[in-house]
Specification:
binds manganese (II) ion, globular
C-alpha cells in the first residue's frame, strides 16, 4: 500500500516541517512530502529548484524529497486540510492508495510501515487529549440539531473525539473529504469567517473548529475509523507512534525555562522536536541549538520538583 503524505505551513512553522521531514527520514520514508505553503520558501530550502509553476522540490536525502506547493487560498490553513488531501489524491499523486495529512508540529517516532498501512480501509486518526465523547454527549446533541437545520443528518454512532493533526484517508473513502469540507462550511457559517482554530470557550458549540468539523463528518458519513489512543500523539504516557506539540508556544520558539518556571515543564513533544532538528536538515545554527537544548534540560530539571497540578 502506498500512502502519500502532506502538510501545510506558513511563517516559522517551516521549522516544524523541517523536523517532521527529519523524523520521516529517520523512519525510513521513501517518496515525497507535499508541503503546501503561503509566503516564502523556508530559509533552509531557498535553493530548491522550481519544478513547475508554484512548485519547488527540495531533496532531503536519496529517495525522499519535499515538494513545496504555493497555495492560494484565503482560508485559514486548518480549514484547507480536506481540500489539500483531495489534491494529493487527485492531482499530485494519482497512484497513491491513501493520503495522509500531518500537522507541521508533529514528529513521527515509529518505523514508516506502521504509518503507511494505517489508513487501509478506514480513516486513520488519533484520539484527542480528552477523547471520551459518548454517542449522546450533550455537545453531539447540539451538533445534530445545528446540522439538521442545514438539512444534514448525523446519526452514525461515534463515541470518541479525534485530533485533526493527523488524518489518513484511503482512496476508497475519498468522498469523506467532501463531507469534512461540507461540515467545515457549516461550522464557518455558524461562527463566522476568518476565525482561527480555537474559537471562544470550551463550552461553545464549536470550539476547535476544524477538528469539530472532522468529528461531525464522522457522524455524518459513518466512515470506518482506524484509531489509535491519545498516547499515539504523546498526550498520554507510553506512546511510540507520533508526538504532537499542541498549543503554544511551539517548541521551535523555545521559552522552555520561562514555561518551566510557570509550572509547565517541556513536553515529550518538545523533546522529540529538538531531537529531530539537526539532520539531515539543519534547522538551527549550532549555538542556537545548544541554547535550546540547555534550556530544555534545565526546564526538565525544574519540572522534576515544580509543576502545576
Ligand atoms: Mn498541531
Amino acid at each position: 500500500m502506498i500512502s502519500s503524505i502532506c502538510t501545510l505551513f506558513e511563517g516559522d512553522y517551516h521549522l516544524g516541517v523541517g523536523a517532521l521531514a527529519n523524523s520521516l527520514s529517520a523512519a525510513g520514508y521513501q517518496g515525497t512530502l507535499w508541503a503546501g505553503h503561503r509566503g516564502p520558501l523556508p530559509p533552509w530550502a531557498v535553493k530548491a529548484p522550481q519544478v513547475q509553476v508554484g512548485m519547488h522540490r527540495f531533496e532531503v536525502r536519496d529517495g525522499f524529497s519535499i515538494t513545496f506547493v504555493q497555495v492560494e487560498t484565503p482560508l485559514h490553513f486548518a480549514y484547507y486540510k480536506p481540500d489539500f488531501l483531495d489534491r494529493v489524491l487527485t492531482e499530485f499523486d494519482p497512484n497513491a492508495d491513501a493520503a495522509i495529512y500531518l500537522d507541521p508540529d508533529i514528529i513521527v517516532k515509529c518505523p514508516w510501515h506502521l504509518i503507511e498501512r494505517w489508513p487501509s480501509e478506514g480513516i486513520a486518526l488519533v484520539e484527542d487529549v480528552h477523547s471520551a465523547m459518548p454517542q449522546r454527549h450533550p455537545m453531539r446533541l447540539a451538533w445534530r440539531e445545528i446540522l439538521s437545520h442545514h438539512g444534514v443528518s448525523a446519526n452514525h454512532p461515534c463515541d470518541r473525539y479525534y485530533n485533526s493533526g493527523f488524518v489518513g484517508v484511503p482512496r476508497s473513502l475519498q468522498g469523506f473529504l467532501a463531507t469534512w469540507s461540507k461540515a467545515m462550511a457549516i461550522v464557518i457559517s455558524v461562527i463566522g469567517e476568518g476565525k482561527g482554530i480555537k474559537h471562544g470557550a470550551s463550552s461553545d458549540v464549536f470550539h476547535t473548529t476544524d477538528q469539530d468539523a472532522l468529528n461531525l463528518a464522522l457522524m455524518i458519513s459513518g466512515a470506518p475509523v482506524n484509531a489509535a489512543g491519545s498516547d499515539a500523539m504523546d498526550f498520554a504516557t507510553g506512546g511510540y507512534l507520533l508526538s504532537h506539540a499542541i498549543g503554544t508556544p511551539k517548541p521551535w520558539r523555545g521559552g522552555f525555562l520561562r514555561e518551566a518556571l510557570r509550572g509547565f515543564p517541556p513536553t515529550t513533544a518538545s523533546k522529540a522536536f529538538l531531537r529531530n532538528s539537526d539532520a539531515p536538515i539543519r534547522l538551527f545554527e549550532p549555538a542556537r541549538r545548544a541554547s535550546l537544548a540547555l534550556a530544555l534540560a534545565l526546564g526538565a530539571a525544574i519540572g522534576r520538583f515544580y509543576r502545576r497540578a
